[in-house]
Amino acid sequence: FGNAPWYHSSVTRQRNSYDSVVNKSGKELLSLCRGLGLYIINGWIRGDSLGRCTYNSAFGTSVVDYAITDMDPNTFNAFTVKQQSFLSDHCQTVLYIEDRPATAQ
């Protein structure tokens, strides 16, 4: 979703994407995220601030694999899209979650 806004309650911010095509499925996903108050992490946080494509084939490239959450994006340290392997048309994605020590109650 090329530079499509993402929504969560009162926060609106542009996310970046190498994929400039927003098809019907993409519009439905954005609508679902808006309605449920979810964040799309791709193209927004450190490690993937440009929104790298997650699918590559002879037919083209696109962003089709997402990290979607209801957690505050500041909880995550980074999100990365790895180099494509010969085993799949999809790239491995990795979400790094901040490790916080437990607090005493």
Topology of helices and strands:
Blueprint lengths: L4 E4 L2 E4 L9 H13 L2 E2 L14 E3 L2 E3 L5 E2 L6 E6 L11 E5 L8
Structural class: alpha+beta
Write the element-wise H/E pattern from the N-terminal end onward. EEHEEEEEE
Low-confidence stretches: 1-11
- Kindly state the number of beta strands: 8
What topology, given as strand order, has the largest sheet? Answer: 1-2
The coarse silhouette is globular
Report the sheet-strand fraction: 25-35%
Percent of residues in helices comes to 10-25%
Q: Between the first and last Cα atoms, what is the distance in angstroms?
A: 43 Å
Largest sheet descriptor: 2 strands, antiparallel
Radius of gyration: 15 Å
Treating each run of at least 4 consecutive H or I residues as one helix, how many helices? 1
Residue-averaged pLDDT: 83
What this model shows, in words?
This protein has 105 residues and is of the alpha+beta class. The chain has 1 helix and 8 strands. The strands form 4 sheets. Strands 1-2 form a two-stranded antiparallel ribbon. Strands 3-6 form a two-stranded antiparallel sheet. Strands 4-5 form a two-stranded antiparallel sheet. A hairpin with a 2-residue loop joins strand 1 (5-8) and strand 2 (11-14). The longest helix has 13 residues, at 24-36. Residues 1-11 have low confidence and may be disordered.
Summed up:
This protein has 105 residues and is an alpha+beta fold.
